[in-house]
Design brief:
single chain, about 280 residues, Jelly Rolls, about 20% strand
Length: about 280
C-alpha cells in the first residue's frame, strides 16, 4: 500500500514526511503522541471521514487536523486519478517541541476553533514552503537540526497568518485542543457509510467492547441490527424514485455490494429491491 516513505526527525520525532500510497479503500489515521498535523496533497484525490464531517481533498489542497482518529477513503472515481496513487507531504507538530522552540506554555492560551479537521487553500507562500521541504526530504544530508528547527518555526508562522489566528501561541493551543463529538452525533453522521463495527469503534476512539456497550445504551439495539435496519429504511424511501438505479441505492445506503443489499432486503421484506419497486408502481 505504501510505496514511498521519506521522513525527517527532530529529537526522535518525525516532523516532516512524504508518503506515497495506492490501492486502498479505507485506512485509519491514528495518532499516538498528541500531535497536530498538516498535509499538502501533492498527487491524487481522497476523502477524510471524521466523527462529524466527510471532506474531499485533491491535488493542490491542504489538510489541517488536530490529534484525533479519522479515516482516509477513496472511491472509484478518486482511484482513477493518477492510477490511484496518492502522495502527501506532512508536517507534524508536537506540544513539547513547539513549547521548546517558541519558549511559551500552550496552557497560557484558551483560544478555540470549531473544527478538528479543515481544508486549507494553498497560497504562494505555503507552496514555496512545501517545495523547500520536498527538497530537504529528497536530500536529507542538508537537513541538520538547526535547519529543521527553522523550518518548523517558519511553517507555524505561515499557517498562523493563513488562518488569521490571533497569535502563534493561540494557533498551536487550539490545534492541541480536540473538540469532542457526542456519541449519537458520530453515529448519525456516519449512519449510511459502510463502516464495520470495528471501524465505528475506531472513529469513536473506543474499544470494540466499549463501543458495543455504549451503542446498546444509546440506541437500545446492537450496532449490527440497528444500522442494518436504518439502511434498509432509507433504501425503501429511495426505491420510490424510479430514476435511481438499484446499484446507486445500495451504495448510498452503505452496503458493500449489490448482492449484500439484495440479500438483506429480501430477508427483511420477503422480496428483492427490484420486485419491491415493481409492486409499488404496479
Amino acid at each position: 500500500m505504501v510505496s514511498e516513505l521519506k521522513v525527517l526527525k527532530y529529537k526522535g520525532h518525525v516532523v516532516f514526511e512524504k508518503i506515497a500510497m495506492s490501492g486502498f479503500d479505507r485506512i485509519p489515521k491514528q495518532y499516538q503522541n498528541n500531535e497536530a498535523c498538516f498535509m499538502f496533497i501533492n498527487e491524487g484525490e481522497f476523502s477524510v471521514r471524521t466523527p462529524n464531517e466527510f471532506l474531499s481533498f485533491k491535488k493542490g489542497k491542504g489538510l489541517l487536523a488536530k490529534c484525533f482518529d479519522y479515516f482516509f477513503e477513496t472511491n472509484t472515481k478518486q482511484k482513477i486519478k493518477n492510477n490511484g496513487r496518492i502522495e502527501v507531504l506532512g508536517i507534524l507538530l508536537y506540544p513539547s517541541i513547539v513549547e521548546e522552540l517558541f519558549q511559551f506554555d500552550i496552557s497560557d492560551s484558551t483560544h478555540y476553533v470549531n473544527y478538528n479537521a479543515k481544508q486549507i487553500q494553498i497560497d504562494g507562500l505555503l507552496n514555496n514552503f512545501k517545495e523547500s521541504i520536498n527538497m530537504l526530504l529528497d536530500n536529507p544530508e542538508l537537513a541538520d537540526e538547526a535547519l529543521i528547527k527553522t523550518k518548523i518555526k517558519e511553517f507555524v508562522l505561515l499557517i498562523t497568518k493563513t488562518l488569521n489566528a490571533p497569535s502563534q501561541l493561540d494557533f498551536l493551543a487550539a490545534m492541541f485542543r480536540k473538540n469532542d463529538t457526542e456519541f449519537r452525533t458520530t453515529i448519525n453522521n456516519n449512519m449510511y457509510s459502510n463502516l464495520s463495527v470495528d471501524e465505528f469503534a475506531q472513529l469513536c476512539a473506543m474499544s470494540v467492547s466499549s463501543f458495543k456497550r455504549k451503542f446498546k445504551e444509546t440506541f437500545n439495539e446492537s450496532p449490527k441490527r440497528y444500522l442494518g435496519k436504518m439502511k434498509l429504511e432509507k433504501s425503501i424511501r429511495m426505491l420510490a424514485s424510479k430514476d435511481t438505479r438499484i446499484s446507486e441505492i445500495a451504495y448510498d445506503c452503505g452496503f458493500e455490494t449489490i448482492s449484500t443489499f439484495n440479500r438483506s432486503f429480501k430477508t427483511q421484506y420477503g422480496e428483492s429491491p427490484s420486485d419491491y419497486r415493481l409492486n409499488q408502481t404496479a
